[in-house]
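Supplementary Text 2. Reproducibility record for the structural model of the 167-residue chain.

All settings were left at their defaults, and a single model was retained for analysis rather than an ensemble. We include the record here because the model underlies the residue-level annotations in Supplementary Table 4.
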Amino acid sequence: MSLKLYFIRHGETVYSQKGGYCGSLDPELTSVGIKMAEQFAAAYHSIPWVAAYVSPMQPTIATAKPLCTAVGLEMQLRDGLKEIAYGKWEGQLPETVNRDFHDDYVRWLTDPGWNAPTGGERGVDIARRSVRAAWRSHSSDSRDLRELSDRECFGSLPQGNYKNNAM
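Retained model, structure tokens:
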């Protein structure tokens, strides 16, 4: 019996567009982000999706909606799948963070797993809560389980034709 998880990052927001730190600010998707979500749904609707576990944040819900609509799944919200908490860095650009929190910033860039943004959370803590959320969501069903989350892959896909990009 195997379990296959797909962690899909939300579409573009004004913060991801500008390169700002945004974990708990909960912005809406830009028009490009909405298009990304629609393109993803069009490209991947034929996968036999079993479930969609989604962060309760606005950009993630908006990213998941086209796919869930296309495949007839109800989103199941999971707090454990929320984006990193950036603490005092929320809403700031990297240049500002480097100036105002230089030592913490350098430590975080060097090892984000064990060093948190000022007042934020460490990478190991994010991984721990994300894995717990995924594990608790998994049933004894042996089919593949796919997740939509505020974590990884989606943001790394180039804009455009997603059918040519392996996940």
